[in-house]
Amino acid sequence: MAATRLQLGDMVEVWSNSKSAWMKGTILQVAQSKLMSDGHNILSGAIKVAYSADEAEHIKWVQPDRISAQVRKAESGSLLAPALLLSFPQGTHVDVWSNTKGAWIPNGVVWEVALDDREVQGYTVPKNSVKVSYKGGAGSIEKWVTADQVATHVRKAGEGLPSAIASACRPAWQPKAGALVSVWSNSKGVWVDGAVKEVSTSARTIDGVLVPAGSARVVYGGINKWIPASMIATTLRQNLDLTYSK
Questions:
Q1: 10, 55, 189, 241 - which has most CB atoms within 10 Å?
Q2: Is the pTM of this model over 0.85?
Q3: CA 178 to chain CA mean position, Å
């Protein structure tokens, strides 16, 4: 599978060598240019995935030349079905992503969720697709958003992230300055003891990088870095409810 076909928020299956099986996961980031992560060179086009194995969450980068062998898109609707039926019942007010405008269009509404595959004007609408209505340049627009696109093209009105990503990334606890934590290290493939030094209460730019509100600055193993708010659920976990005094 070509890396360019995988996007942020896509529900995927990740190959686990230890399990010799495909594990359910989510794409957390697509590298738009070469970057460094935990001392490793990450090439443009690489994808960062989160997946579950051995009752634990794992995060890793998959380089472009390994994507076709290690990551594949989940079957349409296979991972999203329960969330869709709960998150987008008929009448839900939503924002809809417009590819032509490159922006979220507000004041949309869900008219219907497809409970089965169906034919609409000669096209197959897969099960768990969502029919939305929103105002466009020439008036009201109605369209089906297919199940494999709902995660990145539909969000509840006013949410900062598409619904499926927000649900997956919302932390179960809110880190506070001084809290002892475990930080996932991609390079070592293990959790490393650390501490939260600071939590950003508002979005700001640090050294030319945007740090979203709710992000946490952590120290661990001689490393000092910011964990974006959307990554806290899969990169940080509470260790002990003690105060870091160093």
A1: 10
A2: no
A3: 27
Q: What confidence score (pLDDT) does residue 193 get?
A: 87
The domains of the chain, with CATH numbers, are: 10-73 (2.30.30), 80-156 (2.30.30), 179-238 (2.40.50)
For the segment 66-81, what is each residue's pLDDT rounded down to a tens digit? 998 899 887 644 333 3
If phi over 0 gives left and psi between -120 and 50 gives alpha, with beta otherwise, what is residue 54? Answer: left
pLDDT(199) > 50: yes
3-state secondary structure of 127: coil
CA gap 195, 123 in Å, rounded: 53
Q: How far is CA 122 from the centre of its chain?
A: 32
Q: Over the stretch 137-159, which tens digit does the pLDDT of each residue have?
A: 667 788 888 876 777 788 777 65
Helix, strand, coil percentages (3-state) for the chain, rounded to 5, are: 15, 50, 35
Burial grade of 8 (CB within 10 A; 0-12, 13-18, 19 or more): middle
Averaged pLDDT, 161-179 = 60
